[in-house]
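User: Predict the structure for this protein chain, please.
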Amino acid sequence: MEYLYRDALSRAGNVHAITDLWDNLRESITENARKYLIKDAEHYLGYSFAPIPATLFMDFKRTGNRVRFEDVYFNKRRVLNSLVLGELCEDKGRFVDDIINGIYSICEESAWQLPAHNSYKRDTPQNILPDTDRPIIELFACETGAQLATISYVLKDKLDSVSDEICHRINSELTKRIIKPYLNEHFWWMGREDEPMCNWTIWCTQNILLTAAQMDDPTIPLEDILSKAAGSVDYFLKDYGDDGCCDEGAMYYHHAGLCMYITTYLLDLMTDGAFKGCMKNAKIKNIAEYISNVHIHGSFYLNYADCAPILEPAGAREYLLGKMVDSPSLMSYAALDFKSSLESNEVSSTGSFASVKASSAHYLKDEINLSYRLLTIMYEKEILNYAKENPDQIPAGNVYYESAGVFVTRHGDIVLSVKAGDNDDSHNHNDTGSVILYAKNKPALIDVGVESYTAKTFSERRYEIWTMQSSYHNLPTIAGYDQLPGADYHASSVQVSDDLTSIELDIRDAYPQECKLRSYKRYASLISECKLVIKDSWQFEDDADNKDIILNFMTYEKPEVMLSEDPSTDGIFKIGDLCTFKVVGACRYQIEAIPVTDPRLQKTWKHEIYRVRFYPLEDSNEFTIIAI
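Assistant: Here is the predicted structure, written as structure tokens:
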């Protein structure tokens, strides 16, 4: 294991808190941002911050529903951030009383962890209520700590002018709920030896540092905190390949790769430049550039595992991470996406606010993390200037991420991706060998994504959920069986062409042995829009009784299939007006419309989606679709 961050820390001299983190903030706010953020804050004057009763906390354990608690919990934090930003922009004290109410409402919560995370050991049942004598620090306890520390940091003078008890209360709660348990407990996400890590590690570590760096408390042992944080970053990095692929998908890059920026930046500031070498490390740069390599167009991204295909626009953190690792391609992607989203959204309201052209997706981006929002308004001018001076997008190329088996090839507005690897990714779906296809920059063959999280999502019953199953991906059902989860279920014999335009792999081992497969090879190639080929060929063992194959394809646009009565004649498979394929080897088909009723899926899919199921010719062992 490489000790990149621990080695950097070992070379550091003085370790200290930060006194000038947001010094240029007020001067950096654009007039458009100022008007927008004040108007947004005005909606919450006199706001009543809802309490969180014990029964609401217990609701998750009793019903498995996460949404009812989380709606109240997250909304309080969003509203508080809006009020803080309104006060920073207006600077007249109009929002201060409501800010104090928000601070005290959060400080008076019995616990800051989510009920779904209320356990002390990884993958163990959650306790029905929190132990207030033994705080749990997880994703959103850490987010809450960073939020309150940032509020105290940027508004200390205003809060102290009312009462110095306010910032004292914040410091007291942060010490009890964040600093002491961080130093005295081991939570799984901190890392240990070869334990597998995920986005939690760097996400929590970032917010621990945001908390400690901004606390006005000389008694905090910063050396111990930085030592533990640097170790966690190294544990996080050990589970990434050198190619930098985020196996959790593009959505989780925002909580993984992007958290590398603030984590590294703070470590560097708190050690007077000891982490400059980490910023230029090749692996860190590859992690950073992942997002631009899986970007399709506009808000569309390649999505595997629990990732959604539509993400919010890129912004300050992507740009600043690109700047940190010296990546013009990432800076270009971020700046131009930021600029495009600003120009394409006009805020409608009354009075002078109606003339403000701004994207609420940017000024409200990452609503519960106040630091992210401060970075957006602090660097808006610089990002837009960069976009103006560098107006040409640096195009993403073809790529194969061997560490996770993600293959991406492009031609014009067509993007083809294939997932090799295995079924042991973080937030895994059983999708080894699945393809994703975009045509005309729109989703043609889709990965559905995941429904709203419930207790079942992260339980032993996870793969009862339809979106996790291989038969609801662009994959075959073989002898009545779907793929199984785990590292033992994987692709083999993966071959990628030198020009990264084609891939071939065998997905036999992703299915149970009961299928009695000798091989199931999938070949996919994109050379031009008329040379897109997906070809499957298979062989069963001689003693296989069931040799049934059903080829499943998921689409968003309504599909149309035309098969001739003559089985020797090729058929036609159309996906809306996006693409048309010649189908070779199918004798019949079914089209199933699947209503989209889940709120999380509805954010992407505005109408029903479709599953097309092709049945190959009898005794056939080959099936091909070819773009025409």
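Confidence is low (pLDDT under 50) at residues 346-359.
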